[in-house]
Amino acid sequence: MTLIKTKIGRRSFIRTSTLVSGGLVLGFNWLASCKNKTEEEILAMPKEWFELNSYLKIGDNGVVTITTPNPEFGQNIRTSMPMIVAEELDVDWKNVIVVQAPYHSEKYGMQFTGGSRGIMTRWEPLRMAGASARYVLIAAAAQAWQVPAVEITTEDGVLYHKASKNSAGYGEMASAAATIAIPEDVQLKDVKDFTIIGTSHKNVDAKDIVTGEPMFGMDYQKEGMLIAMIEHPPAFGMTLKSVDDSAAKSMPGIKDVVVIKSFKDDYEKGGFDVNAFPEIVAVVGSSTWEVLQAKKKLKVEWQPITASSEMINGFRGKQTKNIPAGLESSASHKAKMEKLGGKPGKIVRQDGNPKVAFKNATKIIERTYSAPFLAHNCMEPLNAFAHVEGDKAQIAAPVQIPSLILPTLASSLGIPAENIAMEMPRMGGGFGRKAYAHYVVEAALISKKVNAPVKLVYTREDDMTNGIYRPSYQATYRAALDENNNLTALHVKAGGIPESPLFANRFPAGALDNYIAEEWSIDSNITIGAFRAPRSNFMAGAEQSFLDEVAEASGKDPIQFRLDLLKRAKDNPVGEQNDYDAERYAGVLELLREKSDWSQTPANVHRGVSAYFCHNSYAAHVLDIRMDEEKPVVEKVVCAIDCGIVVNPDAATNMAEGAITDGIGNAFFGELTFKDGVPQKTNFHQYQMIRMSDAPKEIEVHFVENEIAPTGMGEPPFPPIFGAIANALYKATGQRHYRQPFVTEKQIVG
Amino acid sequence: MAKFNLNINGKTQEVEVDPSTPMLWVLRDHFKLLGTKYGCGIAQCGACTVHLGDDAVRSCQLPVSSVGDKDITTIEGLSEKGDHPVQQAWLEVDVPQCGYCQAGQIMTASALLEKNPNPSDEEIETAMNGNICRCGTYTRIKKAVKIAANSVNA
Ligand code: FES
Ligand code: FES
């Protein structure tokens, strides 16, 4: 058993009261009335609830409510987080009801979804929540039975004292347990004793999803609620000049047309306050269709922005951000990137003497990789419900990081942050986009202006053209080989618009005596932000394609080539900053080699391999392509992942399958270009998304089994798929692929 | 503005709206049938799929005035207890990730099986290709459609 201090967690275990009365809250309050509970559900409802800490309460009949702290966007933490609590509480999963927490940082700490950090950061607090509740239940039983607590055991929600033959359900002891102090430290289970963690449990929301129950921000309803839609500048580099709203206002069902300004002039922005169009026009009316019609009648004049720079107070401290004026185009982006990529960059890391190594090389391979801007295209377009009344605000919106939009909301509304109540409905996808919640501020300002509850809805076109995109990137790799075709030096120079994608301390850094990493960036007024596995989502593809080419030039098997480098990194690492664990990295490759039957390529398919470390985890793929005339068909992907302990294996598998499919879609088709500041795609008739016929026919996911505390899962399988595709396409076509997207109009473009 | 009597999920309901209003918004805004989703508004993503008679249609491109007396079935009306074979198969395979596209996927799949109880892989792909799943649950969707087909045929 691990003895663990509850101290850090104690603050988040504040009890609001020892006795919580009132019924079962299933789902969101606003929906409770929509649904008639079955008789069984009513019978199963306890008469009294006892809150043992802020994550769980136990009913007098033993039913347990577990509050899941973080917002859900499809990674299934609404199942896996409560599973962690239930494991340590030692309760039968069938008796668990899951409730979504509202935003309440005092009770629940950092409630966010992003960076694949959910399970990793919640692992200990959630175990402690379960274990400390189990502790007070045992203490209550010990008092009641007058026996030593250490002699009491638990199983499936029942307390036992063998010697005295006493037993009681958790429900019977809950009232007494609620009066017992939470201990200073608690014992956690041994990993080998887990019965819930590590066993697949079905998605707790699946039934509601397949029956169409309202649960998304887009579904939020409130009496008297109005619908709002926005009109934003048609191009990046433009801003509002004037608006003639007379025609729009006279349309049926329209209540008002308002201009809103998202930031107070003196507001110091945080890193997630990204917003290309802080001044926009909103049309407000009683129904979506009426607002859509009125939107067409707006006469808005736009004007060019002037160049500016602003201070951003983000995670990396205060930084100046330059926003150039002008209307940017992809053609000029490309020219600028090629020019800058050819010049020396800023050296971020250097090991050994790469200059000499390249001078002495027998052979030098140099390749340049590039990728375009990408739009997130979450299935649920951006939306937010807000009701501002006086100095209070109620918000319900799909948001990945509520804590970061709260200060902006408070400033823009001019009300104290503690007067803002936020619910966190399920998100219809996020992928990083919903970390930038400017739409919540917009909804709140609109509500304040029209003095009514408002749901702001972005059209698909608004969502795609008012993006916070994955940047456009470029990377040049150079490898020096000696006369025996051994890799003696590696040089990477990477940059992008407007940020560099480089991770200077990642593999193969650490495995090479001579290494140099440089970076550069180009300012832009096109807004960019996190997109599933930021920066890694480009670098993995470039690096893993390049290593494939180097392995081939060295005459080595691509998996063995990587394993040899990793062995060097493990046995005798170069430098001290290497951010990966060479042993775990090699471990996934070995598992993959075995599970994919690597030496036996099936007939008629072409195989590519790729591996990557990011978000504290390791993922590797073997991807098989079959050519159907000119069209590549992905027959099968075999994937190996080391993300430590896997809480809910089938759910993690689903997420890996999704990451693989998403990666194939973006590698094949993903692209957003600009002309004079205007995004050249506005909806799915132009932006090609992966569909069923392009998805892999089969996906197999394998996890490395170990007892390491969980690390990231949602992102790690995504980046390496780009390399696996490129390498398989090479095998299939004889042509290396350097520019994403790889396939357009069903043609391979190379 | 005009009045329409619509047969939705076995009930006749009246609504007064502009005749050009797409059924998607009639369902969502006026009848609060929120299971049918908005994804693109231009018949490209399938999130808004409902049944018009026996056909899977994109409700974002279906003006209320064109419905007439045809039956409309939404995800809420697909089965009384959420136990349509397609819904059951979806639960068995645990298909959803974010879930936003899934009502549309299920409505397309159930219309397919109604017409073709034993579809081949290719027929499944052709029928389902109009439904985007941004989370990438396609391999599970295909598996669930096959399980549902088997249970329909059993
Ligand atoms: S919303 Fe109708 S097809 Fe996309
Ligand atoms: S499950 Fe998220 S879009 Fe399909």
What does this entry look like structurally?
- Helices cover 29% and strands 27% of the residues of chain A.
- Chain A has 750 residues and is α+β, with helices and mostly antiparallel strands.
- Chain A has three domains: 2-210, Aldehyde oxidase/xanthine dehydrogenase, molybdopterin binding domain (Aldehyde Oxidoreductase, domain 4), CATH 3.30.365; 217-308 and 382-457, Aldehyde oxidase/xanthine dehydrogenase, molybdopterin binding domain (Aldehyde Oxidoreductase, domain 4, 2-Layer Sandwich); 344-374 and 469-748, Aldehyde Oxidoreductase, domain 4, CATH 3.30.365.
- In chain A, strands 13-15-11-24-21-22-23 form a seven-stranded mixed β-sheet. A five-stranded mixed β-sheet of chain A has the order 2-3-4-5-6. Chain A has a five-stranded mixed β-sheet with strand order 19-27-26-25-20, with helices on both faces.
- In chain A, a hairpin with a 2-residue loop joins strand 34 (743-744) and strand 35.
- In chain A, helix 16 (536-553) runs parallel beside helix 20 (719-733).
- The longest helix of chain A has 28 residues, at 118-145.
- The model of chain A is unreliable at 7-37 and 745-750 (pLDDT under 50).
- Chain B is of the alpha+beta class.
- Chain B folds into two domains: 2-78, Beta-grasp domain (Ubiquitin-like (UB roll)), CATH 3.10.20.30; 85-153, Orthogonal Bundle (DNA polymerase, domain 1), CATH 1.10.150.120.
- Chain B is 36% helix and 16% strand.
- Chain B has a five-stranded mixed β-sheet, with helices on both faces.
- In chain B, a hairpin with a 2-residue loop joins strand 1 and strand 2 (11-17).
- Chain B is globular.
- In chain B, 58% of the residues are buried.
- At the A-B interface, helix 8, helix 10 and helix 19 of A face helix 1, helix 2, helix 3, helix 4 and helix 5 of B.
- One FE2/S2 (inorganic) cluster sits between chains B (96-102, 133-135, 137) and A (74, 379, 429).
